[in-house]
Specification:
Elements: E1 6-12, E2 45-49, E3 64-66, E4 86-90, E5 94-98, E6 104-108, E7 114-118, E8 149-156, E9 162-165, H1 172-179, E10 197-202, E11 208-213, H2 228-232, E12 240-246, H3 251-268, H4 270-273, E13 277-282, H5 289-304, E14 308-311, H6 320-331
Parallel strand pairs: 1-3, 2-4, 9-11, 9-12, 12-13, 13-14
Antiparallel strand pairs: 1-8, 2-7, 5-6, 5-8, 10-11
């Protein structure tokens, strides 16, 4: 299933059923009074947050969602049956906007949440409702009211504990495949990841971390270069950011990469710079003895800035378990003194 994080759809609630014009027709009652029943209410279009979904791909082909209309009223004071509600499933993190005005109507984040996107029309009153002392035989009834209808823009922002941030080929996908059951495409060239991915890392004691991997960021991503806007929005809801740096390119290159990434984050939205940060110095399996000493120096540099730092290897798994523990503590908002630093 292809990843889709934006969609435009049309929703229409069911129209109300018309009221009935009817009179009693019974033996020995030649002039029976009005007994037309009311029409049934039209069905609503209801959005339900389904945690098993993580993409808007279901809206790739189906664009129109129309609920059932209410049934017409009947004689003998029988009311029409209400139309069935139409349930539309959306993933957590779906933002619903009015397509015409751009106004945000609902931010659907909590699994199980139900929200009525379009309300069904009321059923019309039957002629029995209009009987009075001065009007004994009303020969009219109300039509049902039309259901609400509108075009909606859907935008998905993934919800995760940890957001992976790094330049192309920094090893994010390798790390994600190491710690979760996700199976991203991995190769030794830039832009292997071309769509956001979610994975769940299992820690001990039934603890889990939901991790979002976005495609690598390049300079100018916050301006939309390299589809930066489409990717950066998926880490807005994360609790902690994991900056993955490729240490195999050297200390200077890793520092430059860190500065570039931080500039892109702050350029997109200030809130990203205020999130808890953890730095992972990746690919230490490729380092020699002298290069490992540089790794320690660089890690101490980040710790002095108040940023937890971990040398790791996404390929061999070295240092990964301790990194996950730090991410768990950061995501749960612990005492900073509890956080491990360089290992």
């Amino acid at each position: 299933m292809k990843f889709l994080d934006e969609a435009k759809i049309f929703v229409k609630a069911g129209d109300g059923g018309p009221g009935c014009v009817s009179f009693r027709r019974e033996r020995y009652v030649p002039r029976g009074g009005p007994d037309g029943g009311d029409g049934g209410k039209g069905g609503d279009v209801v959005f339900v947050v389904d945690p098993s979904l993580n993409t808007l791909s279901e809206f790739r082909r189906k664009k129109r969602f129309i609920a059932q209309r209410g049934e017409a009223g009947r004689g003998k004071s029988q009311h029409g049956r209400a139309g069935k509600d139409l349930v539309v499933r959306v993933p957590p993190g779906t933002i619903v906007k009015d397509a015409e005005t751009g106004r945000i109507l609902k931010d659907l984040t909590t699994p199980g949440t139900r929200w009525i996107a379009a309300r069904g029309g009321k059923g019309g009153k039957g002629n029995e409702r209009f009987k009075s002392a001065t009007r004994q035989a009303p020969r009219f009834a109300q039509p049902g009211r039309p259901g609400e209808e509108r075009w909606l823009d859907l935008e998905l922002k993934l919800i995760a504990d940890v957001g992976l941030v790094g330049e192309p080929n920094a090893g994010k996908s390798t790390f994600l495949s190491r710690v979760t059951s996700a199976r991203p495409k991995i190769a030794d060239y830039p832009f292997t990841t071309i769509r956001p991915m979610l994975g769940v890392a299992d820690l001990t004691d039934e603890r889990t971390l939901v991790i979002a991997d976005i495609p690598g960021l390049i300079e100018g991503a916050h301006k939309g270069i390299g589809m930066g806007h489409q990717f950066l929005k998926h880490i807005e809801r994360t609790k902690v950011l994991l900056i993955i740096l490729d240490l195999s390119l050297g200390k200077a290159a890793a520092l430059k990469s860190f500065e570039t990434l931080m500039n892109e984050l702050s350029g997109y939205h200030d809130s990203l710079n205020r999130k808890p940060l953890v730095v992972a110095l990746n690919k230490i399996d490729l380092l020699g003895v002298s290069e490992r000493s540089e790794c320690v120096e660089l890690c101490n540099y980040f710790i002095q800035k108040g940023i937890s730092c971990h040398p790791i290897s996404g390929v061999t798994g070295e240092g990964v378990a301790q990194l996950l523990e730090t991410l768990w503590l950061k995501a749960r908002g612990p005492n900073p003194d509890d956080l491990p630093g360089c290992i």
